[in-house]
Amino acid sequence: MEKNIRTITAQELRQGRQALVEELKQRGINAREITLAQLLLEEMFFRLQKGMEAGADFSIRIMLRRMWGDTELRLMAKGAEYNPIPAVTETPTEEAEEDAYQLAILKTNRQKMSYVRKNGLNIVTIKVHELDSTKRQLIYTLSGLVLGCICGLFMQAFLGADVIKAINDSLIAPVRNVFLNALHMMMAPVTFFAIIAGITNISDAALIGKLGGRMVVVSLFMQVITALLGLGLGLLLFAGDLSYMQAGIAPAAGNAAAVQYGSLKDMVFDIVPRDLVEPFKGDKILQVMFLAIFFGLILNKMGDKAKGAVECIDFVFRFAIVTLKVIVKAIPLVVFLSMASLLASTGIESLLTFSGLFGGLFIGVAVVWLVGAMTILLFGRITPFSMTRKIMGLSPLIFTVSSSHARLPFVLKFCAENLGIDAKLAAFSIPVGVQLNKAGNCIFFSLVTLMLMRVYAIDMSTSLFLTLWVSVCIMAIAKPPIPCGGIICIAYLFTVVGVPAEAISVILCVEPIAAMFNGVCNESANIATTFILARENNMLDEKKYFA
């Protein structure tokens, strides 16, 4: 959406800046970005005027453009062709000190600007505000989801089954497989270096002390119970036959994977690999995690002697993350193709199954609140009703803020002012608890695994249930804080129960929305754990809590 602000001359530059400020304020742009936009507008105006050798009547037209959450300022000047964006090697003239100042400002913000010559106009575009990359990816993925649904229903209505199958086999399946292969290629190395980098960056494990040990106990208790209830919820929600969805994912014939572990004992004794290479070649993510933890602890024990190795690991980890970020940029396209294929092959009935999954995630939030209340009653020996009521009020804010780092100030303020938790305790417990309290992951992992088990008609034996229960708990805690970290964990769970790897493409469609529910569950569990610590250590203001 574009909006023409005004055309300005040198005499009207001040009024133009003021009009720009008012318009940007209406769009919710922060003060720092507004100040920079004014500065770049002024400097670019004079640079265009000088470079185009224009007279006193020189003018530019100012327009604002907003798309996908980004806000851009466009400056359009008619006249001789001139690119005002300075080259990196450009140097100021010695006789003009103002030129040096102007050049320094423009060079510093060079990446925010672009130039194009069109219809006799010199057009300069300045990026005033850029949407957070996580939110941008979410918007693109949701757009791919919606467009894929529309395209799939259109294909089902107007194309024959043979044509749909040909499109799936010749276009959708190859593109999807290329993406899944690229993602699978990075699973083991990214997981390994994410965990080992996290362990080697712990400067003082003794700092956690007694409070940290208690936090681990409470967090694990909540996650074990939540995972059990999540599996039970999944068995109730997906009790029917969902095999019709195979047509839009991957037919079972020739694709079904063998159940990786026959029992819980097999899984436990398979954690230690026979060699160092095999875990990185297959789907042995649990073995990769074991190696990362083991080597990370060894490096920590070596102290300064391992400094060079730690720096090398940090570099490789950053390299792997950048590589993975490039790969996941294709997720919106894969989501579009996957949903188009699914709905073209199965119809709107698939959407009902997904609505059941989202309903399960919604119920899962209530399950986490229930587990949190039960844990507070058991460990804290205090009524949990006030706690649950106040967390419900905070949940809409948590739901809309995707990043745990962005939520941190709100959560800390909530703990201190609404629950009466000591501010120093909250400042310690909440950031540490972000890595421990993964109740939302337990719910999500349980539901999607059981849903796909029903799609491929995989029976749930007692031994498989126990293995899956333990695996969900481990993956929920061990989920690496990286793009597609949850997808990596789900891919491992699929190998545990025998679901084909191609089914991951369907989970990509729902993962961004599920992340919002996961955020509410994880923060609720984190707050409950912090509350219990405050209660046990006499660091709770009960007047504020019951207020």
TrEMBL record:
InterPro entries, per this entry? Na-dicarboxylate_symporter, Na:dicarbo_symporter_sf
Q: Where in the cell is it found?
A: Cell membrane
Q: Which SUPFAM superfamilies match?
A: Proton glutamate symport protein (SSF118215)
Residues annotated as transmembrane: 138-159, 179-203, 215-238, 285-303, 315-337, 357-380, 455-478, 490-510
What molecular function does GO assign, one term? symporter activity
Q: Which UniProt keywords apply?
A: Cell membrane, Membrane, Transmembrane, Transmembrane helix, Transport
Report the GO terms under cellular component.
plasma membrane
Q: What is its main location?
A: membrane
For this entry, the protein name equals Na+/H+-dicarboxylate symporter
Protein species of origin: Selenomonas ruminantium
